[in-house]
Design goal:
One of its GO terms (molecular function) is RNA binding. The chain is an alpha/beta fold and about 525 residues long. Helix content is about 40%, strand content about 10%. The protein binds S-adenosylmethionine. S-adenosylmethionine binds near residues 237, 257 and 303.
Length: about 525
């Protein structure tokens, strides 16, 4: 019963957007987190189907349980393990079993399907069946080289198939890998290849990061020794990538509003061997771009909070959102994103800025860029990666889009703005507060609206999604564990990747057990 009660509690909190499922499960302190996580995710996936069954059988009225409890119980009874545990709840549910099974059978006949999974909403089904994204592994060149990492994986039993030459080469069988088509520091493995326990991951030699999420730092390509701003930086995958490209030389100013995420980020950057960064727990919109400290900033990476609509993610809320609410949410996000962009373009020596989102909505992508260019005529778009197939929506084909079907990545958008020679930033404060009008499909104009008065410096949490990859969500959960491990990892991290395996798997497991016994915590470095 404890499992179902916990799962129902987490499901309810997740549906009220009180946190990511993984984080809520981790925080619950439940003994078997894997079992709890699987149950919550599966129930969430079938949420709309379960709600229909519960409604059809009037289960809430007859049992007096809450909707979230009913969903978890009905899921496990009809689709999952068959209520293996459950105490009094099991007894209660068994009384309704026949009626629930009949309702499920009727639903399948009505929808002309035979399998339970065919009842899932189309978006969830696509994630289930269709798209198994490759496992992308970014080699952290601050700690090792791509060649050394390749050698290590080969010795670890993986078959190296060389440099990928065409998109099909990225569709790999288990235990094989290639070098990516576009990104020199990226290795590509078969979907779901598990690396969270791998030595190279634990030691910060590899970062598990979706290919699309590697594009912003790669395209910004800051000079080693340069001054760079990462405006909305946590949990810092792109910051770490920037530092690697800068070879840890120069200054990397990273801001984020969320202290908890910054603390995770600090731990992760430490593990990745990043030293050129300076973290600040600040609202980027309040950063004084004229401060002499930023006088040499030439590069900005802006990856602000967005709707996260590009994320291929199981366990996403599958219920169809209220369209009006969704439009309001997108309008708020777009207004925030445009304000961030306009603000970022104010750094007096800025030369290049990358704007990215993990959203598929034009409102957050091309339309934001269009409005920004209109307000900042001193900047223009750079045509990115000509060989990249999926382009920004017309007329913004200089930008890149990414998607599971076309680029085998999560949905993503990247634009690179550069200053015209000699131009200075022009966006006046009055324009900064304008937002993009939403209704027109081809909006490139800027319309002051009521929202403009509200000046949303901070997007409400329920409107934003801050993780652009499975790994970033994992980071939040791993925070506590990593804080304990980071000291040991630093020592292990000194082992050169190419020097051969640092011991057998058995030994590594032993080491891991030992590490877990330690309780050292690390203080976030340089967080202002
Ligand atoms: C999409 S995430 C950034 C992911 C990050 N770039 C990475 O690659 O790991 C957006 C981040 O923006 C932060 N944020 C939101 N509003 C902000 C603001 N006004 N100033 C600074 N950071 C902000 C959120 O806390 C969140 O961590």
């Amino acid at each position: 019963m404890a499992l179902y009660a916990k799962a129902a509690d987490i499901l309810e909190k997740a549906e009220q957007k009180q946190g990511a499922v993984k984080t809520l499960v981790y925080d619950s302190k439940f003994a078997n987190v894997k079992q709890l996580f699987a149950l919550v995710c599966e129930t969430q996936k079938y949420s709309s189907v379960l709600a229909e069954l519960i409604e059809a059988t009037k289960l809430l009225k007859q049992t007096k349980v809450k909707m979230s409890q009913a969903k978890v119980l009905v899921y496990d009874l009809l689709i999952g393990q068959g209520l293996k545990c459950g105490g009094p709840w099991k007894v209660m549910m068994m009384k309704h079993r026949a009626r629930l099974e009949a309702a499920l059978a009727r639903m399948k006949i009505k929808r002309k399907v035979t399998r339970n999974k065919d009842l899932l909403p189309s978006g969830v089904q696509a994630a289930e069946d269709g798209v198994h994204l490759p496992r992308y592994v970014r080699v952290n060149t601050l700690k090792t080289t791509v060649d050394d990492a390749v050698d290590y994986f080969k010795r670890d039993g993986f078959a190296y198939l060389g440099q990928a030459n065409r998109p099909d080469d990225l569709e790999l069988k288990a235990k094989s890998f290639v070098r990516d088509l576009h990104l020199p520091d990226l290795l590509v493995f078969a979907p779901k290849t598990e690396f969270h326990e791998h030595f190279l991951y634990k030691a910060g030699h590899i970062i598990l990061q979706d290919k699309a999420s590697c594009l912003p730092a790669f395209l910004l390509d800051p000079a080693s020794g340069g001054h760079v701003v990462d405006a909305c930086a946590a949990p810092g995958n792109k910051t770490g990538h920037l530092a690697a490209i800068m070879k840890n030389k120069g200054k990397l100013f990273a801001f984020d509003l969320d202290a908890k995420r910054l603390s995770t980020m600090s731990t992760l950057l430490l593990r990745a061997g990043v030293t050129c960064h300076q973290l600040a727990n600040r609202d980027f919109l309040k950063v004084d771009t004229a401060d002499p400290e930023y006088k040499d900033v030439e590069y900005v990476l802006l990856d602000p909070s967005c709707s996260g609509s590009g994320m291929v993610c199981l366990g996403k809320d599958s219920s169809s959102p209220d369209q009006e609410k969704e439009q309001r949410r997108l309008a708020n996000l777009a207004a925030f994103q445009l304000r961030c962009l306009n603000h970022a373009l104010r750094f007096p020596r800025l030369q290049r800025l990358v704007y990215s989102t993990c959203s598929v909505h034009a409102e957050e992508n091309e339309k934001v860029v269009a409005a920004c260019l209109q307000q900042n005529p001193g900047f223009r778009l750079v045509h990115l990666l000509p060989q990249w197939k999926e382009r920004g929506l017309e007329p913004f084909t200089q930008c890149l889009r990414a998607s599971p079907t076309k680029t085998l990545t999560h949905g993503f958008f990247v634009a690179l703005l550069e200053r015209h020679s000699g131009a200075v930033s022009t966006a006046p404060p009055s324009q900064e507060e304008t937002v993009i009008s939403m209704p027109s499909p081809e909006v490139t104009s800027v319309t002051p609206s009521e929202e403009a008065e509200e000046k949303p410096a901070v997007v409400p949490p329920e409107a934003q999604r801050n993780s652009d990859s499975e790994e970033e969500e994992m980071m939040e959960e791993e925070e506590a564990e990593m804080k304990m491990e980071v000291k040991t990892n630093q020592v292990e991290g000194q082992v050169k990747t190419g020097d051969g395996a640092p011991g057998t798997k058995k030994k590594r497991k032993k080491k891991k057990k030992k590490k877990k016994k330690k309780t050292t915590t690390s203080t976030p470095a340089k967080v202002e």
